[in-house]
Amino acid sequence: MQFNFRAAVLTVGWLGLIYYLSSLPDLSTVEDAPILRIISNVMHAPIFAVLAFCCLKTIGAPRPSAKAYAIAAAITASYAVLDEWHQSFVPGRFGSIVDVLTDLAGGWGLLLVMRLRGLNAPILSNSEPDTAPTWPN
Question: How many domains, in total, are found in the chain?
């Protein structure tokens, strides 16, 4: 495994954003409108998919190993549970197992797709290509 400092900074920033969003009190307007509640719940998946991606790039750049995927999945799951626990202390908010499962679906789903397809996105990679691209003759 290889540590990527730029990805780590992005990961910490993303964790802070999730914490901030979880700290917003009393979402009664969301609770009153069913469509807003659905949108609010569905948004958990992409938010935690980004977290999983950032974690993976932090510990597995440029070519993540199976161990890096497992660690990224564990970090994502841990933060999903901690996020809902944190919400249970915010006035007007509550923790929900459905939200944890939605978080896991987003984060683990992205990691699974990346692992199965062998996608190693070049974003945030510290490595340079071995050779310069050439034009076909």
Answer: 1
